[in-house]
């Protein structure tokens, strides 16, 4: 009788943990923004050891809160500089580099965007420099210039004075961006005003017809669009 003995050799493996984070991937690893701007954090995907996406809590931290702070799914830029933001899930993490730079001027807006001036009238223009994230960038230098100085000039603070009649253009420039406004100018000065009727008796309780004004320059030419200020004298 022959006896055959068989032995089986085998190894045991521990079950793989597919519920714990193994790696963290971000939809972006760098971005640029501006002070006082708020932007979204990148999308975070958490994977297990089998590289299967899993649902797991993610916590964001900022390496320098003076430059940027985390607010839920947003990041608030506080000051110019570069900061590393870290997304952590379990023992896995990923980093995101945020660069905060000076916001550039991308437009200039002048108000009012046009005007009609007569005689000795003047007007003050206001210019605002805006950027990609903010409609107003305080402290940005704006230079005014008159393209038709024979008709109108402008001061460094935006005050326009007339010197002639016609259409004048005023520009405001900041960091290479320009806005232009038009001034319709009639520099003739009112010399004489006539009022019709010259006198008027009003019965109590009655409605009087309005006075009719006529304004004339030094040469006796009637000036349209001039409205005198009425008084009691």
Please, could you describe this protein's structure?
The chain is mainly β and 233 residues long. It has 3 domains: 23-100, Immunoglobulin-like; 107-186, Immunoglobulin-like (Sandwich), CATH 2.60.40; 188-232, no CATH class. It is 0% helix and 45% strand. The chain contains no helices and 21 strands. It has strands at 23-26, 30-33, 38-40, 44-47, 53-54, 59-62, 68-71, 74-77, 81-89, 92-100, 107-111, 114-118, 122-124, 126-130, 143-146, 152-154, 159-162, 166-174, 177-186, 192-196, 212-216. The strands form 7 sheets. It has a 4-stranded mixed β-sheet with strand order 2-10-9-6, with no helix packed on it. Strands 12-19-18-15 form a 4-stranded mixed β-sheet, with no helix packed on it. A 3-stranded antiparallel β-sheet has the order 1-4-5, with no helix packed on it. 17% of the residues are buried.
Task: List its salient traits.
Immunoglobulin-like, four-stranded mixed β-sheet, 45% strand, 233 residues, mainly beta, disordered N terminus
Topology of this protein?
Elements (H helix, E strand, L loop, with lengths): L22 E4 L3 E4 L4 E3 L3 E4 L5 E2 L4 E4 L5 E4 L2 E4 L3 E9 L2 E9 L6 E5 L2 E5 L3 E3 L1 E5 L12 E4 L5 E3 L4 E4 L3 E9 L2 E10 L5 E5 L15 E5 L17
Parallel strand pairs: 2-10, 12-19
Antiparallel strand pairs: 1-4, 3-8, 4-5, 6-9, 7-8, 9-10, 11-14, 13-17, 15-18, 16-17, 18-19, 20-21
């Amino acid at each position: 009788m022959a006896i055959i003995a068989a032995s089986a050799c085998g190894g045991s493996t521990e079950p793989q943990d597919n519920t714990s984070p193994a790696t963290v991937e971000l939809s972006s690893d760098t971005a640029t923004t501006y002070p006082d701007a708020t932007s979204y954090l990148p999308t975070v995907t958490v994977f297990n050891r089998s590289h299967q996406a899993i649902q797991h809590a993610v916590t964001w931290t900022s390496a320098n809160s003076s430059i940027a702070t985390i607010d839920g799914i947003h990041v608030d830029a506080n000051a110019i500089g570069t900061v590393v933001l870290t997304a952590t899930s379990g023992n896995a993490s990923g980093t995101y580099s945020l660069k905060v730079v000076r916001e550039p001027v991308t437009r200039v807006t002048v108000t009012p965007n046009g005007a009609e001036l007569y005689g000795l009238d003047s007007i003050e223009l206001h210019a605002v420099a805006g950027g990609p994230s903010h409609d107003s960038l305080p402290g940005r230098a704006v230079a005014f210039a008159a393209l038709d100085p024979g008709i109108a000039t402008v001061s460094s603070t935006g005050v326009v004075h007339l010197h002639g009649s016609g259409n004048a253009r005023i520009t405001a420039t900041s960091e290479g961006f320009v806005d232009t406004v038009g001034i319709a100018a009639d520099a003739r000065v009112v010399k004489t005003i006539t009022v019709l009727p010259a006198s008027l008796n009003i019965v109590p309780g009655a409605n009087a017809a309005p006075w009719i004004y006529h304004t004339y320059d030094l040469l006796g030419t009637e000036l349209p669009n001039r409205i005198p200020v009425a008084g009691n004298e």
